[in-house]
Amino acid sequence: MDWFDNIVKTFFDVEAMIVVLPQLLGTGLVNTLIISIAATIIGVVLGMIIAVMGISTSRWLRIPARIYTDIFRGLPAILTILLIGQGFARFSQTVFGPSPYPLGILALSLIASAYIGEIFRAGIQSVDRGQLEACRALGMSYGKAMRLVVVPQGIRRVLPALVNQFIAIVKDSSLVYFLGLLVSERELFRVGQDAAVLTGNLSPLVMAGLFYLIITIPLTHLVNYFDNRFRTGRRKATPPKSGLDEVEEIQPQSPVALTYGSNT
Length: 264
What we know:
Blueprint: H1 2-11, H2 14-54, H3 59-74, H4 77-87, H5 89-96, H6 101-125, H7 129-137, H8 142-157, H9 159-172, H10 188-199, H11 203-232, H12 243-250, H13 255-263
């Protein structure tokens, strides 16, 4: 059983996990959530702009949106992060100081916006075109009809896909460590990696992986819940009525008939 003891000691050393736990909670988890949430918010805003440009009738808006989407969806995430983080490092230092933290968020935002833009575009185009035509017939402008009627319905339909995209951003946030974050800015993966290098044990990395699972698994089930809820609808099916109930509802007895029935 030596091999089993070696596996347990290498991957599931409880003492090594307990030692790194405060740093994972206080630094790694906090920074991972900050990076992921900030990148998602910026990505949603940019993605909505890209989606509206992508469905525009103007080629001057549609073609740049297509090129933007193709570039940031086609490049590997790590390549985009390195290009943004190293290419704009000098500019970032004059604005944000020596920390590459904002550039990591920017890179993830650009990647996320390309995917989120396609998600929004698909959701908006899935709405029946007759609704837009009905709004125009009522005197609404194109922009007002899209803003008040079409876009809200499209967003509601793509909520599960948006949650899936947030899960992807949480996992991609581990790539930001390539930019060389400060000690106080390191996310879950970098904290676990540093502890694993110092101790020569992989248990801190396993602990970091558990934190990723704690974030992503509930979100995955939330996606399934939203998907089932939107497919089945909010109203529960009511049991069918009996034939007698239908007859009574359609032909209720009048007071005259009741009186006649009692006299006989």
